[in-house]
Amino acid sequence: MKASWRFARIYEQDLAAKHVSEELLYAVRQVVQDCQSALDWTATAVKDKFYPGSTWNPYFPLQGDQAKFREALDKQIKGLEADRLHIAAAFERHQPYQSGKEALGHLHALRKVNTHRDFTAQTRKERRAVRVQTGGGYVEYGQGVRFNPGGGITIGPGGGMTISGAGVQIGPHGTSIGGVPVDPRTQRPIPHPSQSVMQTVYVDWRFNDPNVSVLPALTDLTALTRSAVEDVRREAQL
Which of 138, 32, 93 is nearest to 231 (CA)? Predict the structure, then answer.
């Protein structure tokens, strides 16, 4: 899985350029292929050690629930659960239905589009937010947040507010942040020396299917794959 560092570099370059390059598409494919190959290679190594009679190269079973996992494991490495429960348990620890392992569930979908050469990888998505920095913390809110002239805050689509160590006061004459009134015309606090106000644009590439953020998804997938390979190999003493 050596492609991950290269992928991150190309990813940031393409975000800045606002364009998905062929180099990025290739790097994404490489990460996906490396993860799938590492998992399948591990499953094959287990089969070859304990059931050397067949030439079948199994896939690493990844399933969305326990019943499907047990069925898939028995199909790929028949008899493993009955003969060596501790190794089967290691496979099960690294399933998408386990807490914190959800990203492994994206692997089959990403591998499928790659195999069929229909890789519609990324959509560029921007999210704008205003951050008000005060002496004791900050308040950040998205475009869907509206400070109403008569007081009150409305949060609509694209909204959301984070408050960290700063006060937000809502009164009959409007809203204040850190004691500074918010101008409902600009949706920002009136300029004041105690505060700094800036607009931040959060930019991301997202897969179309599955609809997840590209860099975090592949970062998680790489780390989870490494953990699965190490765990299974340790239990199988490979």
Answer: 93
Phi, psi of 90 (to 5 degrees): -65, -45
- 197 three-class SS: strand
Q: Who contacts 73 (Cβ-Cβ below 8 Å, separation ≥6)?
A: 61, 80, 81, 88, 91, 92
Whether the pTM exceeds 0.90: the reply is no
Paired strand residues for 161: 141
Instruction: Kindly state the helix (H) or strand (E) to which residue 229 belongs, with its residue range.
Output: helix 214-236
Q: How many helices (H) and strands (E) are present in the chain, helices listed first?
A: 7, 10
- CA distance linking residue 33 with residue 10, whole number of Å: 17
Apex 218 CA angle, 105 and 120, nearest 5: 85
CB 206 within 8 A of CB 212: yes
144 neighbors 155 (Cβ within 8 angstroms):
yes
Burial 162-197 (b: 16+ CB within 10 A, else e): eeeebebeeeeebbbbbebbbeeeeebbeeeeebeb
- Give every residue of the chain whose pLDDT is below 70, as ranges: 1-6, 16, 18, 113-128, 158, 201-203
- Which tens digit of pLDDT belongs to each residue from 71-111? 999 999 999 999 999 999 999 999 999 999 999 999 988 87
